[in-house]
Fold:
Amino acid sequence: MKLISDPGKFIAITEKAGKLKKNIGFVPTMGALHAGHFSLIKQARKENDIVVVSIFVNPAQFGQGEDFKKYPRSFKQDTGFCRKLGVDFVFLPDKDNMYPQGYSTFVSVEPLSGLLCGHSRPGHFRGVATVVAKLLNIVLPDTLYLGQKDAQQAIIISRMVKDLNFPVKVKVMPTVRQEDGLALSSRNAYLSKDQRSVALVLYKALRLAQCMVNNGQRNAARIISRMKQLIEKNKLARIDYIAIVEQEQLKEVKKIIPGTLIALAVKIGRTRLIDNIIIEHI
Structure:
């Protein structure tokens, strides 16, 4: 496994791989790797000749007052995980590599970037789309692997890839959860023991929604109302949003149909967590 920080050197490697007709699978991350990331890397390893993982805590996607400085950083541990999982290259750029002095070009996917999480995190998805676009141009992958836990992010990146004609396939893999249902997230590390227990309410609310659908409920407003009631019983939990939307444009729906996305963001103490499910069958 090779560690590379210079974009120019990485482009030379990926161009050579292309000439040798080697398939490249790519997993972009901000580090603090966990089993959710591992599942993406393992899938990439199964399907490609070369596996690339990037580790870059992207300042462009953090807003004022957010947790950029304290975001978990464990590069030594992360590269050790990558080595064990059979990763071929780890791309470790720094801020100056990705955003040199005078940098002024950004990618904005509208109106998707202003919806759901975009309401409370203005500019966040512009930063995400920009860094992923840059990474795709550097890594030149055949397949990009993303997690369903970050559903809006996956939808926005998929739209960007389509709109800008990136020659890459986007593969979205299922959310990985702990045994009690909590979706794996690097931000879970911020939770105290009591907060960790309260955080289960996100998945409980989603399970409640799924149960209501299974029992014949199709009215989105009624489902959201019941989800709110469940979450608001916890004093440590503050709802950012609960949304029931279609996946193409993230437009709110009144009636549940197959493919509907139910997503929510909840603050547990100071930690903002997100989760979602897709209603596969009615």
Residues 58 and 131 are 7 Å apart (CA to CA). The chain has a mean pLDDT of 96.
